[in-house]
Each structure stands twice: as C-alpha cells, then as structure tokens.
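Handout, page 2. Input:
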Amino acid sequence: MEAATLAAPFSSYVTSTQNSSSSSPCSLLLSRKKKNLGSVNLRFKSRLSVRASSSTSDSVVTLLDYGAGNVRSIRNALRHLGFSIKDVQTPGDILNADRLIFPGVGAFAPAMDVLNKTGMGEALCTYIENDRPFLGICLGLQLLFDSSEENGPVKGLGVIPGTVGRFDSSAGGIRVPHIGWNALQVGNASDILDDVGNRHVYFVHSYRAIPSNENKDWVSSTCHYGESFISSIRRGNVHAVQFHPEKSGGMMFYSKVGLSVLRRFLDPKSSSKQKPEEGKKASKLAKRVIACLDVRTNDKGDLVVTKGDQYDVREQSNENEVRNLGKPVDLARQYYKDGADEISFLNITGFRDFPLGDLPMIQVLRYTSENVFVPLTVGGGIRDFTDATGRYYSSLEVAAEYFRSGADKISIGSDAVYAAEEFIKSGAKTGKSSLEQISRVYGNQAVVVSIDPRRVYVNDPDDVPYKVIRVTNPGPNGEEYAWYQCTVSGGREGRPIGAYELAKAVEELGAGEILLNCIDCDGQGKGFDTDLVKLISDSVGIPVIASSGAGTPEHFSEVFETTNASAALAAGIFHRKEVPIQSVKEHLLEKSIEVRM
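Output:
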C-alpha cells in the first residue's frame, strides 16, 4: 500500500516547531574555500563517507520525505516518468543514493529540526560535497542556505551563503504568499531548465533567497516578484528550484514544462535538442483560472460533482435529487487537460463529520493526483473532532491526511469563522485554532480560508457595527449601502461578523489565501460581486480568489480589471460546458491580462 511507503522514520513528525539554535550541519563540517563554477569544491571534515550505491538500476530515484506536506504529487510525477522510488530510511540511504530528490514542504524550522534529530542534515551535506546528483524543491532549496528568518532566525544546512527572508509586501504592492504561475529569467547554464522556455512555472511560498555576490556562482535562474529572488541554483550535479516542477504541468505542454525539469535531472541523456514550443511569452505573475468541484454523495450513495443555486444543490423537480454533473476524478483530469491553473475540491458530503474516515474523498484526491500535475486544494471537515468511538483527532492530523493524499492546500470554512470571532473578541491569538496550527507547521501558503457571505442592505453606514460600502446596484428598496454577513454550515447560519472583519482577522491568524464566495451570486451567471471582491482584495495583503457568479469570459476580465483579485474560480459554466477554460484564457489574453497558456 502507498501509505506504508511514506517516510516511515518520520511519520510521527507533524507538529514540531522547535527552532534549532545549534550550528548548522554543514557549518560544522564545512570550511568554505574558493569554489569552481563547474563543480562543487566544498571542503568537509565529515565522519560520514559516501559508498558506491549497490543499486545498478537507472530507473530508481531516492526520495527524502521528512513527513510533512504533500509529496504524493512528486511520487506520482516520478512514476509517470517511469521511475521507481526508494524512500530514505536512514542517513546511509542518502549517502548511497544514485540520485536524490528532496521535496521540502512546510515551514523551515520544523524541517531543520527533523534533519538535525535524525542525522539526515549531515548526510545531506556530505552527499552534496561529493557532487552527487541532487534536486531540492521549494523548501528543499531554502534549507541549503545559511539561515532563515521564518519563525527565527533558524540555522539552515549552510551549503549556500545567504539568509532566506520574507517577501517585502511593500515592494511594488505585492501579495504574500507568492502563489501562482510566474516567469523565470534563466542565467547560468542549467540543463534541467532548457525546456521551460517562455512558459510559466508554479510557485507557492512566503520566503525567498536573494542573489548576492557571495552566492552568485550558484544562481541559475531568478524570478521577479516585487524584487528579484533566486528561483533555481545549480553547481555541478547539485540542483534546486524554488518552484514546483511536479505542479508546473499545463495542457499539452506539460511534458515540456514541469515534468521535463524532473526528466532532465533524472536522465540527462534523454534531453532533447529540440527548442521549446513557442507561445505567449511569460513575463510576470499570471492571473489564475481555477476550476471548482463541489463533491458530495447523492441519494444513491455515489460520489458526484454537483453545483448549487445559491447553495441549493438539489434539482427543482418532483424527485428533488442531488444535481449530478459528473464524476470528480474524470472532471478534474479533463479540466487539467483544458488548462485549469488549479483544481479545487469542496467536500460537502456527510463524511465531513468524520474526516479521517472519509475514504471516498481521500480516494478522489489520490486518483486525481496520479495524472493531474497542477495544484489541488481540498476543503470540508478540516477541524478538531472526536469520532464515534471517543477518539480525538486534531486539525493537524486531519490536514495531514489530506496532504498525504494529494492536496497541496487545504481550505477552512466554518472553523475559521469561529476562530476569527474569538480573536476579535479577545484580541489575542490562542495558537490552538485549526488555522493557526496548520499554518504554523505547514506554512500559511498551504492554508486557504473560504468565506461565504451574504449581502445585507442598509440605509445608512452607521446602522450596523460592520464595514459598510456603497454598492453599485441599489437594494430592493433603493438602499445604497450594504455589508456582507458571513455564514457557516454551508450558508445556513448567519454569524455576527462581516466579510471585511473576517478577512482581516484570518490574515492575522495565518491564512495565506482567501477564497471569496458570495451566496447572492452563486449559480446566477451574472458575474462576480465586484463590490465585495474589491472590498476584500483592497483590504488584505494575501491573495484573494474571486468566486460565485461567473457566466461568461467577460466576467473574468471584469473582475481582474476592476479589483485586485489574484485568481477567479468557476464551477457550473465549466461542468455544463457552457464556457471552455481555454475560451476564458484566450479572452483574457485579448484583454492584455497575463495568463498561463
């Protein structure tokens, strides 16, 4: 079984956040000398030695999975490329690897804590010193640097000079985390990037390393997001990328973009001399088009994709059955082929009362991630709970199960509303909410908060103690103002908190992104509530996804042109094949809006 292969030595690691105050593994071993450009010329005083691998198979890759976040996607990508996987069980497995991939996921401090406690850190340093084939991904790049400011300072492996710092949100008005598809500026020769060409690749991170005189010989590409940061390094056989190649697939070009980076690293001889296919040149962070699938069981017990009309998912017929728009795995695969930048699953089944027993939804994620190489988000039932036997599960355990099953981000709804209400009331963070716990361990870039507000018209801004705005379209009695009341339980219960207040609070509590729905617009096909989207996207410094109401390609350009939304999500128009994803993107290109093609 797949679960049995997931990093056995580290499987108990979930919540550790202890900062390492000791010297980094490589700084204990490493005396930096003048380094040659073409090879790793590091001097270690290591008690570890690299033995020739006993494996003679060219199709085996060693994977260092330290037990946090979604590494199922990299596993699936490697298998898709025809490679088998050997999991690291001991430091010796690192030293004996023919080729090693370190897909770091989560926060810097917990990762270093695991590497230090298990002896993996020292083994990594020795492996890299010997110029063995290595590929770090995302956090797997950041950990190579001297230190990080994330929950720190925290010492890193000390291989590359420099400190990993947080993006400066004041630089060019950027939103942090950096989430989405951005362009690379390739510098020094790095064969594994040759197929990327003019295409976008997928980033999701809040911290970055900056090029400097001390580390310039390592830098193989940079990316611009408010400032220029290191998007990849290369020296000899040692590579690392800040973006996610396993998530940088795209339509017919996926083999030329994301997976090609992995293929070129694993099998340099397979590198094609063919130039990457030309297309619209990627120049900056693209606006994202996201396909959403509301998943629940119908009355027959089958798991189906449905779509609500102002959150009502039942047909208006005598049978009053759950609206069935297709099978979730099949639809997700189709949307990936059609060019969706992300796939979002919302689990609205009765299983959400028992998340870890929600086998159908877990299976949906597992099967989808086998062939869908763009980011997957899942929401529904992610909270602390006690099952029918009296066993308690923390929200971290629930989130971990979703991550292990293929989710890249998790979406929290009602539980985030309750946490925000408590935070506003007390003025203090408890650190105990699901939002705070998950973002602390996995990083805020892995946590989306879904807001489900309903428009409430008022005659005067002083009528309520919530943020009130002047609306574009007056209310039924000519009201010129409205506030947006947040709801829980699928829109069935209104709460004493507005969308503005909730958004500000969850940003403080650790949310990395906001999925902004609107009950009034849901299923109407008349466009997004741009008044609401503008209010929230102007008020927070994290990305905002506009949702609810899309009916035409013009609705997407409208929300991008009139608000600061980073992405727009739709469901029904894609499910019913009324508007193809490709048509939306072509329209956005015509409007000079950057999109991934």
